[in-house]
């Protein structure tokens, strides 16, 4: 990522980093804004954000936090990326139902994976180099008695009950276990410990975590008699009010094993016009002037989707690589007959076809049957008619014969079936 880091910068048109974060829509809540601004502009401070290992990969919600951390680092501040080896064993209360606790072995494995992912977005060189920390390092040695005496005594149950996630669960049929109820105490301990060890005075996180975030500032104030800061980003939603970062009901992951670079690129390419400017602000390092220009292009010529194309390239290049972003572009072009399918690497083509309606088929299967099997037509007669009308392509070559069969595989493994200009299906060799 070092070459990527060299191309990243904050926008000098803003008077300070907080002003830029607000313009980018990254400040939903904070502790006293003027005090926070003073802290961010009067020298280098240490700040942290925590990531719990609740899955084997980070997702787009985590990316918001990582890029916020990076912007603060570019402003001269020192990041601590905390991977929750202990909090991941407990689980943050969900608004609906109790979490299923993962095994220690699973959590340990995920801690390692998430740490490696998070580290890609921060620089570990220079005067304000990032540091990775694991809260298991300071919670594991504490006995239950010491935890209750030294930490638990500072938390008032009434205030704990008022936290949004807790109150939501209390009012549900599921209730809440003491395990999840104690989560906010553990997160408060994290901030206190980082304050003591590294003089960490700022925690960033999502606004939906506000109750957990404030538990840390409250604890620092009670134990150390000092103040600390919080900066909470908003929940990212689409213009229709739906939670952003979901694709066909699934999270969009940063790990290519869970969301391929091609699928990742396509997700950003399909962002609605009404949302694209906000996404450029949050998920890219493009300047205000560059984003304003793309906004004007969207208004003037929305059909060209210039903003979406730039967004998709920038974020895919950031999360994966510029080469992966270009491969996704090339794959899209080739699938629609504007490039050479055989030039695509197998992994890119496999992931691209996986995003399409697809079937397995043996050589010599009639093309008309494949049109039905893939859902491109409703019946064999409709399939034969589509071929006769000249609107069916196999691997970008027009199918001329109604009786034609599957006889051409790309890399001995794949085939692309297309009806008209835009309706595609994938075929895997059986």
- How would you state the average pLDDT, rounded? 93
CATH architecture label name of the largest domain: 3-Layer(aba) Sandwich
**Gross geometry:** elongated
Number of strands: 13
> How many domains make up the coordinates?
3
Strand percentage lies at: 5-15%
Largest sheet: 6 strands, mixed
Numbering strands along the chain, what is their spatial order in the largest sheet?
1-6-5-2-3-4
- Uncertain spans: none
Structural class, by secondary structure, is: alpha/beta
At the first level of CATH, what is the class of the largest domain?
Alpha Beta
**End-to-end distance:** 39 Å
Instruction: Using the CA coordinates, give the radius of gyration.
Output: 25 Å
- Classified in CATH, the superfamily of the largest domain is HUPs
Helicity, as a percent range: 40-55%
Count of DSSP-assigned helices: 21
CATH topology of the largest domain: Rossmann fold
Short descriptors:
alpha/beta, Rossmann fold, Structural Genomics Hypothetical 15.5 Kd Protein In mrcA-pckA Intergenic Region, Chain A, six-stranded mixed β-sheet, 13 strands, five-stranded mixed β-sheet, 430 residues, Tyrosyl-Transfer RNA Synthetase
């Amino acid at each position: 990522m070092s070459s990527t880091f060299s191309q990243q910068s904050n926008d000098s048109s803003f008077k300070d980093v907080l002003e830029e974060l607000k313009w980018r829509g990254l400040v939903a809540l904070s502790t006293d804004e003027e005090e926070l601004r003073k802290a961010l502009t009067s020298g280098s401070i240490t700040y942290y954000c925590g990531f719990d290992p609740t899955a084997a990969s980070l997702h787009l919600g985590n990316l918001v936090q990582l890029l916020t951390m990076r912007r603060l680092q570019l402003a001269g501040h020192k990041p601590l990326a905390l991977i929750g080896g202990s909090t991941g064993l407990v689980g943050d209360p969900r608004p609906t139902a109790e979490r299923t606790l993962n095994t220690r072995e699973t959590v340990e494995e995920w801690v390692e994976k998430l740490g490696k992912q998070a580290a890609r977005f921060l620089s570990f060189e220079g005067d304000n180099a990032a540091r990775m920390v694991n809260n298991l390092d300071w919670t594991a040695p504490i006995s239950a008695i010491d935890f209750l005496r030294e930490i638990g005594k500072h938390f008032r149950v009434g205030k704990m009950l008022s936290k949004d996630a807790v109150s939501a669960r209390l009012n549900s049929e599921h209730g809440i276990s003491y395990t999840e109820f104690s989560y906010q105490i553990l997160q408060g301990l994290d901030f206190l410990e980082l304050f003591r060890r590294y003089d960490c005075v700022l925690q960033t996180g999502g606004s939906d975590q506000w109750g957990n975030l404030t538990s840390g500032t409250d604890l620092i104030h009670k134990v150390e008699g000092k103040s600390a800061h919080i900066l909470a980003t908003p929940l990212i939603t689409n213009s229709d009010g739906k939670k952003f970062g979901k694709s066909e009901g699934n999270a969009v992951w940063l790990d290519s094993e869970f969301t391929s670079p091609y699928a990742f690129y396509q997700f950003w390419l399909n962002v609605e016009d009404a949302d694209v400017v906000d996404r450029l602000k949050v998920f890219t390092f493009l300047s205000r002037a560059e984003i304003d220009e793309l906004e004007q292009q969207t208004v003037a010529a929305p059909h060209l989707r210039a903003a979406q194309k730039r967004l998709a390239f920038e974020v895919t290049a950031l999360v994966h690589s510029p080469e992966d972003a270009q491969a996704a572009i090339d794959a899209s072009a080739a699938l629609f007959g504007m490039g050479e399918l055989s030039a695509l690497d197998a992994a890119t083509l496999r992931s691209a076809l996986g995003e399409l309606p697809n079937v397995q088929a043996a050589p010599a299967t009639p093309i008309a049957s494949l049109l039905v099997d893939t859902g491109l037509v409703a019946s064999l007669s409709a399939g034969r008619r589509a071929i006769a009308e000249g609107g069916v392509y196999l691997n970008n070559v027009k199918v001329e014969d109604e009786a034609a069969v599957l006889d051409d595989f790309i890399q001995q493994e794949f085939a692309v079936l297309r009806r008209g200009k835009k309706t595609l299906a994938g075929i895997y060799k059986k």
